[in-house]
Amino acid sequence: MQRDLANQSAILPSLPARSPKHSTEAEAGAIPWKKFSGRISYSSCNEDSRSELKALRLGAGKRVFCITAGGGRVLNLLYDRPQEIVAVDVNPTQNYLLELKIAAMRALNHERYLAFLGVRPARDRLKVYQNLRPDLSSAAGAFFDAHPQVVRRGALFQGSLERFLVHVARVTHVVRPIWINRLFKFDDIAKQRHFLEGWNTRAWRFVGETLCRRSFLEMFSRDPGFWRFVPPEVPLHKRIFDLMHRYLCNHLARDSHLLQLVFFARYVYEPAMPIYLLPGSFERIREALKTTQITIVTAPAAAALADLADGSFDGYSIADVSSYLSEADFGTLMDEIMRTARADARLCSRGIFAHRPLPPDHVHHVRRDHNLERRLSFDDLAMVHEFLVGTLQTRSG
Ligand SMILES: C[S@@+](CC[C@H](N)C(=O)[O-])C[C@H]1O[C@@H](n2cnc3c(N)ncnc32)[C@H](O)[C@@H]1O
Questions:
Q1: Has residue 180 been placed in a domain?
Q2: Cα 325 to Cα 335: distance, rounded to the nearest angstrom
Q3: Is residue 41 lining ligand 1, measured as CB closer than 6 Å?
Q4: With 70 as the cut, is the pLDDT of residue 386 above it?
């Protein structure tokens, strides 16, 4: 059954598993997704959606397939006003969060939106939620009714990752409170770089690398396991630490909303929040909600695509899901992407540390934009992603 939200957005129920090839387990390898589906794993947007906007070249008449995650990565795409977004996540709670963010955006002005989501203080979030409740699907409403603390504390920072970052921020503040506050004051990259020269002390490296260790992340982050396909010989802790250092040598700390979360567990410099939260783009995105159709689907990405017709999309924003997939399941996802792509559709995919190669069948059907890939990998504020960006050469194209 499909239910229309106001202004043309639609919520679809979970897709049934269509065949063993497309079942959740088959696609997601050993990740027990059911274990993660009762809670929000990611509530903010930890990526830099400016990368997706540059890569996908959306606009009027474009249809785009987008992984939901915290919902922000879907809302940010509205900046370019595509005709339709199909937002997909294997975890239904991520989609409930997107519903909540959409309903709130329709109902609230910018200031009240920031307060409701938790960027700014508010005492009446549950009251606001009661007004939004009729605009949610029954499943989303039931979820937030059963978890009022998520709304009361400000849903934007209630994901497992964001709550893990509260502890990270506490630890880093115990070790280097003055240093961190100074780091986030710089508005000149040359001065920040100079300041960083003294940062790489043994104690600091020890703390940073401990927090980024595979074993530590496995135990405390509650992430399903982005490290599963990172070869064991890659020292996760050193890579994360070094990539953060490279980023900070070339970009202002305060301009990264992810680093704000890492060091403060909240947004301390509002001009650098995700696009949909910025005053300059909030109204534009709110307007786009009136015309862009948003269809929300709970299913593994390949299964969601398998249900759709050939030639459905002009763009694919698949986040870093490839890092969570086995080789074979990445192949199945690429098969479905190629089948459902319109002529000259664009693909934007992220890989953690490295992007796995395209399956041999597809290598010659993606015209990759290596220059753009390199630029995005260097500038993207998520810091740890390598990009695969290109134009899809479909059989029809
Ligand atoms: C891969 S995670 C990473 C978070 C992301 N980097 C961010 O900033 O939000 C993003 C989302 O992908 C979803 N996901 C992972 N594998 C999936 C799959 N095969 N199909 C659909 N969604 C998937 C997870 O449930 C999660 O909500």
A1: yes
A2: 14
A3: yes
A4: yes
DSSP secondary structure string, 189-253?
HHHHHHHHTTT--HHHHHHHHHHT-HHHHHHHT----TTTTS-TTS-HHHHHHHHHHHHHHHS-G
213 and 103 in a common domain:
no
Which domain does 131 fall in, by range?
Answer: 3-154+275-392
Distance between Cα 90 and ligand 1 center (Å): 7
Q: What is the pLDDT of residues 301-358, one digit of tens each?
A: 999 999 999 999 999 999 999 888 888 999 999 999 999 999 999 999 999 888 989 9
Probe ligand 1: pick from 21, 31, 91, max atoms within 8 Å of CB? 91
Which among 70, 56, 75 has a CA at the least distance from the CA of 275? 75
Nearest atom, ligand 1, residue 69 CA: 27
Does the residue 108 lie in any domain? yes
Residue 397 lies in a domain: no
Instruction: Identify whether 130 is part of a domain.
Output: yes
Q: Which of 266, 291, 312 is the last residue of a domain?
A: 266
Query: Are residues 100 and 44 located together in one domain of the fold?
Result: yes
Query: Residue 250 and residue 35: Cα distance in Å, rounded?
Result: 39
What CATH number corresponds to the domain at position 327? 3.40.50.150
Nearby residues of 239 by Cβ (< 8 Å), 6 or more positions away: 353, 384
Are the C-beta atoms of residues 393 and 57 closer than 8 Å to each other? no
Alpha carbon nearest to ligand 1 atom 13, residue: 89
**The whole model's pTM is what?**
0.88
Picking from 232, 266, 300, the residue at the C-terminal end of a domain is: 266
pLDDT tens digit sequence for 81-99: 999 999 999 999 999 999 9
